[in-house]
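Troubleshooting: if your tokenizer reports a length mismatch, compare your output against this known-good record of 234 residues.
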Amino acid sequence: MLNLLLLSSSSYQDTGYLTHAKTYIQDFLKECDSLNEEILFIPYAGVRRNNDEYEKKVKESLNQENIVSIHRYNHSKEAILKAKVILVGGGNTFMLLSKLYEYDLLDCLAQRVKEGACYIGWSAGSNIAGKSIKTTNDMPIIMPKSFNALNLFPHQINPHFISGKIQGHNGESREERLEEFLIANPQEKIYAIPEGSALRIKDNKVKIIGHNPVLKFEHPMKSTTLELNQEYPY
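Known-good structure output:
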């Protein structure tokens, strides 16, 4: 049984760090009967802050004293395999996946979520829940062992999705970059999540929550709008 909450971003407009996500996370934990469980936090995507700083920021922002970073445990695998709620923060997706491979945690993390642990991620933490990180927006600052990710959600995810070209930007739009991926990988599907929105995944259905609809892209480049508060098979 899968229980995933995949947020596009840690912030929405000017609401502050994780402010918009508090209600989504609380509702998710209630649905999972895990409101009072310890939350295991994985901070490896945070390149510009150390593990202690990242843990402190998330605890304070969510007002959750029961968040404990994985770096405080002597045995990381054991911590994952005992966890009932796992929270994976954003930052750089390549660094996050690289660390999970380096510490040999990717398979046991996937195993634990498939066994029933609740999974919450945002940005990079959402990216790695998909099939691979090939549709991340992040700069490849480090080379992971593979681009293959947790594959809990068996499709591609593109967080922070912004449609169209930003004024003054002469490079490719997000749609054009995703079209390139689909030309190279025509069998894949991409779920493009605007900021302020999230995928709520339970078993084989995905529900769109937040402020904006989600777009599903397929080859040849065509999009399907997934409306807010609606459930879809995937």
